[in-house]
Amino acid sequence: xxxxxxxxxxxxxxxxxxxxxxxxxxxxxxxxxxxxxxxxxxxxxxxxxxxxxxxxxxxxxxxxxxxxxxxxxxxxxxxxxxxxxxxxxxxxxxxxxxxxxxxxxxxxxxxxxxxxxxxxxxxxxxxxxxxxxxxxxxxxxxxxxxxxxxxxxxxxxxxxxxxxxxxxxxxxxxxxxxxxxxxxxxxxxxxxxxxxxxxxxxxxxxxxxxxxxxxxxxxxxxxxxxxxxxxxxxxxxxxxxxxxxxxxxxxxxxxxxxxxxxxxxxxxxxxxxxxxxxxxxxxxxxxxxxxxxxxxxxxxxxxxxxxxxxxxxxxxxxxxxxxxxxxxxxxxxxxxxxxxxxxxxxxxxxxxxxxxxxxxxxxxxxxxxxxxxxxxxxxxxx
Length: 382
Prior knowledge:
Blueprint: E1 6-9, H1 20-30, E2 35-38, H2 48-55, E3 59-66, E4 73-80, E5 84-88, H3 89-93, H4 111-121, E6 130-135, H5 145-151, E7 154-157, E8 173-177, H6 180-188, E9 191-195, H7 207-211, H8 219-240, H9 252-264, E10 267-270, H10 271-274, E11 287-290, E12 294-295, H11 304-314, E13 318-323, E14 325-326, H12 333-338, E15 341-344, H13 352-357, H14 359-381
Parallel strand pairs: 1-2, 1-11, 5-6, 6-9, 9-10, 11-13, 12-14, 13-15
Antiparallel strand pairs: 3-4, 4-5, 7-8
């Protein structure tokens, strides 16, 4: 009888599709003949609250807030336990909230997050709790300015009029009026922003140039948004004395990380610091299975898949990647050579839309490939 292999399942959420907990549970069911350890992960973006709920005993409250285009109200959940309140930016500002033809980071705003935070801050039972905000998967590129305006900050243009809402208008920002009462209020609270990426606000590796295209920005839009981010950074330096242009992780969530730090005095930390993988470094697995919605070069640049890849090398485990789609040409050759298998669900379906809609079926089909890959490796070992 073949021995049971020890397998670690730590697949990240598939953006706009299925969260980490659900994907890993599906895989665990399909691979139940082996010794399975499930370790759902989140880099702060989609699925952040699902992983929190998996690891902690939480309660939940619901709130109604404006959507990122301010065209409707949406219902969002907030988790809390004895010590913390947890918010997921992808649920509040996410791409998944906007139909593909309507996606436009010139127009989307973080205003709804500000409304949510005002409501949460007003709850007496939350007053002494630390707030943890997972950042990532947003449709916005406004550096949290909409959020700030909703909370009560006054952002003015060159005509001393209230700045219009949306990423398009950041280049017109002239002045931020600092409300001492707001500053005192937020200094009393402990707010942690868990960032999904390490990108700064501006530059070739800044949030706008790397991520705004997938949010619906054209090349021309990207230039407008980049000018806005530069202007925002300059105005912040004058108003608050903070140099934020090149701060690591401040580009997360379309600059939301920067906004949370500037306006709410939040500490910005990497998801790796919050969801530590160190507890796995002393274990031994025959295989590690990880992945995310799309795997490309960005997956190995400080994101969850890249960190799991490094873990597999450190503990000498075979690595299998499962994803919705993959851009294999962009993945470094060294990485491709060290991956045991890469399985993209899109090959089972006609198009990306069908792949997302039938992701559960896709995971089950991928499981059959995983079983074959594992059996092939095991037969060579015996």
